[in-house]
Design goal:
14 helices, alpha/beta, four-stranded mixed β-sheet, TIM Barrel, six-stranded parallel β-sheet, 13 strands
Length: 394
């Protein structure tokens, strides 16, 4: 069996674009993965095209060998977009390997450790506030304008069976300072420090969510790269009374993150923007996180399981970074099922109505639990008719 062809596709995901890679072998077996072009200037698709002549003719079942060889070629520019393009090839090859062996991908790594996965409602209220125009006018979702709306959304999450939700600074009031994640060009992008009004609004929003979800439902709060260490500490201390399941934040300095964790009571989750096992190591050695967040489309599932094994040696749980489409959710579910130190899985709940059309077997989520697929490979395939129907040019 040899790789014969690589093809990329881009589909309308509403306020973003979903990207897919299809690898076809010389005996017509196909492997799929979802990848992301939504950060920075893009370029993952172009890099996949650059790698295509290199991997054509290779055995797709030798997944580790393919990834290792491609990383060797990019060693002078390791990580980043190179790593994401290699991860896409790795993930599509894993789908082929599972199908060829007649087993789910997680079985290639010793799984499943579990058949159902607890999931949390990610960006709960966040996008409805940040992108009111799209979510209200295009998707017809209920507006989030007041603290009472926040409470009602919290109650809805509990009624739907979710045991945890994650939100962000919302800028709920017209006079609020815009929240900037710290990785996009935007007003005040360089002003990575909090003010009292912003912290006060965070407290009001979390108090409303806590009232809505009750005392036993987990709440996560995600600041991304929004602050420097001093700002993260101020915010963490101001929010301690809300008993967060974790405070999520990103900073590329392991010492700084370790210092933050040592100074606060709230568990710290981080590392979603880190590429490769070696880059995770200093954070584990510095005891910088309680939960290591791992992006499967960015790292590749083979590399992600290696990261999880390293984390396990340091008694650290892992949770996937997963705010993508249904195929990426299924890929992340295989990661969660393949590791013993899984915490909880991220899931994008507020989404476009045509999301499930892109896969032949959509995910099953019941009472806040994601059912791990049992079919060969990912346990689903991509619907190419849907790709044509919702195609966008890239």
């Amino acid at each position: 069996m040899r790789i014969a062809k690589l093809e990329t596709f881009h589909a309308d995901g509403g306020w973003r674009v979903w990207s897919f890679l299809k690898i076809t072998t010389d005996d017509s077996l196909t492997g799929w993965c979802e990848y992301n072009e939504g950060f920075g200037a893009g370029g993952v698709t172009e890099l996949i095209a650059k790698f295509a002549p290199i991997v054509t003719g290779m055995d797709p079942r030798a997944v580790g060998r393919i990834s290792t060889q491609l990383r060797a070629l990019t060693r002078l520019a390791t990580g980043g977009l190179n790593h994401q393009a290699i991860a896409a090839i790795e993930n599509a090859c894993l789908d082929i390997k599972g199908k060829a062996a007649g087993v789910p991908v997680y079985a290639l790594f010793g799984g499943p450790f579990r058949e159902k996965l607890p999931v949390y409602w990610s960006h709960c209220a966040s996008f409805r506030v940040w992108r009111r125009d799209y979510f209200e006018q295009k998707l017809g979702m209920k507006p989030i304008r007041t603290l009472d709306d926040i409470k009602a959304l919290g109650r809805q999450a509990v009624e739907r069976g979710f045991t945890a939700i994650k939100t962000n600074p919302l800028n709920l009031w017209p006079q609020s300072k815009s929240f900037n994640s710290g990785f996009r060009m935007a007003p005040d992008m360089l002003e990575r420090h909090p003010n009292d009004a912003s912290i006060s609004e965070m407290r009001e929003v979390l108090a409303a969510f806590r009232e809505g979800v009750g005392p036993h439902t987990g709440i996560m709060f995600d600041l991304n790269f929004n602050q420097r260490p001093e700002g993260f500490l101020r915010i963490a201390r101001a929010l301690e009374e809300f008993n967060l399941q974790w405070l999520e934040l990103d900073i590329h300095d392991a010492d700084a993150l370790s210092h933050i964790r040592s100074q606060v009571k709230t568990p710290i989750a981080s590392l979603e923007a880190v590429h490769g096992m070696a880059a995770y190591r200093p954070f584990f050695e510095k005891r910088a996180v309680d939960v290591a967040v791992v992006d499967v489309p960015w790292n590749g599932l083979w590399e992600s399981t290696r990261i999880a094994t390293l984390a396990d040696a340091f008694e650290v749980d892992c949770a996937p970074h997963n705010f993508y489409g249904d195929l990426a959710s299924i890929m992340s579910a295989h990661f969660c099922a393949a590791i013993p130190n899984f915490r909880i899985m991220e899931l994008e709940v507020d989404d476009v109505s045509w999301k499930s059309e892109f896969v032949s077997i959509p995910p099953v989520v019941e009472n806040g639990m994601f059912h791990v697929p049992t079919g060969p490979g990912w346990g689903t395939d991509v619907n190419e008719e849907a790709l044509k129907k919702y195609a966008v040019k890239k």
